[in-house]
Amino acid sequence: MELEEQKLEQFKGQARLPEFAVPRRYNLTIKLDLSACTFSGSVLIDVFINGVTKFLVLNALELVISQVSFTSSHKQKYVPSDIVVDGDDEILVLVFEEALDVGYGALEIEFSGVLNEQLKGLYRCTYFDEGEKKNMVATQFEVVDARRCFPCWDEPALKATFKITLESIPSELTALSNMPISEEKHHEHLKTVHFEESLLMSTYLVAIVVLLNAYPLPKLDMVAVPEFSDAAMENFGLITFCETELLQDDLHSAAANVQRLTIVVAHEVAHHWFGNLVTMGWWTHLWLKEGVATWVSYLVTDRLFPEWKIWNRFLQQTTGGLRMDALGQSHPIEVEIHNAQSVLEYFDAICYRKGSAVIRMLQNYLGDEVFQKSLISYMKKYAFKNANTEELWSVLSETSGVEVNKIMDTWTKQKGYPVISVKLNDHTLVFEQTQFLSSALDSDALWLVPLTLSLCSYNNQKRFLLEAKVGNMEIEDVSCSSDVCSSQTTNSNEENIGESWWIKINIHQAGFYRVKYDDNLAAQLRKAIASNSLSATDEFGKQKLGWDATPGESQLNALIREEVLTALACFDHPPTKVEAIKRFQAYLEDRNTSLLPVDTRKVAYIAVMRNASSSDRTGLHCLRKIYREVDAVQEKTRILRCMASCPDPVIVSETLDFMLTDETNWDLIIKKWEMR
Hints:
four-stranded mixed β-sheet, Neutral Protease, domain 2, 676 residues, Immunoglobulin-like, single chain, eight-stranded mixed β-sheet, alpha+beta, hydrolase
């Protein structure tokens, strides 16, 4: 474009920035004022002017531009005659009186802005420190929000290096960016933090975090290892994964794969605090890292993807822990380990599932704020040191004022769990605990059970510690806001409970125990369920999902579809079996058919194998053919696991022989126990 053709208006309404200049390096300095929730800064951008121009156009949004200058490689300084900030197009146009020199130059801009609360750009979060609400800072620049933090060429193709400096950081806070810290200077209660220069990257990948608790290492690498004995391993700063637990393939990763991958990665990252930063003193306290990291992985996943309703999946995991802990051969969470080699057998459902469930139960009983504050204190106290279970309970007790060790010893030092029988005698709720066992054996084991209950509404909640075999609570102790509920409970007894009255023990199934209601209370709960008064933890049957996804469908629906159809296929439901095999045939003819997307492929494979027999091996041979042709690890894993679904013993034997050949990888066949 010729110089005389360049006009200010031509840059407005354009999808892309003009190509007059490209950035090579950003030297970015940001000064934070956390109390005022503002920031100011300067950016010195090394640019290459590749054409004659009197304009420089870059991105900026919600920033106040104060000073601008451009210095050419010949040391000639240009000051723009006009600075135009266009909020609609999110651009900053710098207008110069004369054409800029072609070649390298340096553009310097001073700017300021507000720490927003929109969770994009440079934004503020809050946390509580000793009961006082304080601010912290984070960034989210993907897709086009780096421009909210500093003026830049905010397009992914325009990569550059970044040298970042953060000023006026309170000394007690930790500042992080993409690169390690190169220098830190303190000025009384504030500090300036300089980071090493980055490699070439796009602006949307720049990150800044200022927070109370530090990530203890300068970097974190994640590596998928083709042959790996576990799901993952949380090596400090270098996490190693089995390929299936880290790599996602849009063509072959079902919704369930994506969820598991997210949880596994979150689990391993959580270990950098629970297990790496603070390490158990000996393997007896193995659960202290595995159980807590499992709980954190669901907590983090729920914050990142609330639409997944991941705590429903957590309840499925908890059920596995309940099932194992009901066996006579179960063991306590804390097992005295005398030989380090023997600890391998305790990487099991008790360690992971029961361990995470009792942590969630304690969190629910103490409250989120107290629990978070306690964990922060625990990590500060034992950072780069060792701790045992009793030391965690001690910190929690000190912070909460509750004798946590007295309660939790009954959950970690003895095996099993209770079933709580509850009945209503006049105005008194009567609770009685007995150990839940799969066998007919009797047990006199007792727990201190942190019960939670709701009356008529989830707004009416009560916590109650059952400290003996039998405990009582007056119904009036549970507040009830609605007039209907109040009138019902006033006249309630075990023979005459009002139509709208109900009580729910173990709110949201957060406790590691089962509940047995008497007939009258159970009848009231059934009515509450029928009237949608209770929150549903079981989504099955909520709607007819069918085989095909609908536009904009949630991941939760995709998961439910796979679960329901898989169950129907396993039970040889005739319509499901016929439809699955029909869709499998379409998939054989066209691997890109929409009739068998990744979320229902497992259903078809199971149906094919359940239809296979020694007299008709067609389906088995077709499945093996797909296995040999596909490269994706996720798909190979799915096929191998579905091959075990055939009821014909001859086919089972042939499948086992196939599993033992060089064609298969045992790392894919054996499902890892949770994650390390």
